[in-house]
């Protein structure tokens, strides 16, 4: 009975505060970021801020994306790839391409293309301009 009450309590707590497992994943991710060299950490934290505003908002999808980001940056550090070698000359192009690999990013890319095509048709143009995330 005590285990059942504890389980029920944890269930209600997660409803109010969000998944406890996702919070643990976030803490592990942040610990990884803190271990990066300062210039990479600054870049990752800036990218995080961007993703908080424009990236996937759901817990599991977002966490997978952040964990993949940590993997990518850790590997770049290990391989000696400089910041610009990783993020390129256009960091927005990098982040948009990076996000396009995740479900919400794919949805946004499709909708962006749909919107661009509709405007091109409305303007009487045959071919809409290419989306930046499509390479």
From TrEMBL:
UniProt keywords, alphabetically: DNA-binding
A GO term, aspect molecular function: DNA binding
Stored Pfam families: DUF1048
Domain of life: Bacteria
Full protein name: DNA-binding ferritin-like protein (Dps family)
């Amino acid at each position: 009975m005590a285990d059942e009450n504890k389980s029920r309590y944890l269930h209600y707590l997660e409803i109010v505060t969000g998944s406890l497992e996702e919070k643990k994943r976030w803490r592990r991710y942040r610990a990884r970021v803190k271990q990066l060299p300062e210039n990479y950490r600054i870049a990752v934290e800036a990218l995080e801020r961007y993703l908080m505003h424009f990236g996937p908002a759901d817990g599991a999808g977002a966490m997978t994306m952040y964990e993949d980001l940590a993997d990518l940056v850790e590997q770049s550090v290990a391989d000696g790839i400089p910041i610009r070698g990783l993020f390129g000359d256009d960091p927005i192009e990098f982040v948009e391409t990076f996000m396009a690999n995740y479900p919400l990013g794919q949805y946004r890319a499709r909708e962006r293309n749909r919107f661009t095509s509709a405007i091109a048709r409305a303007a009487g143009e045959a071919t809409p301009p290419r989306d930046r995330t499509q390479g």
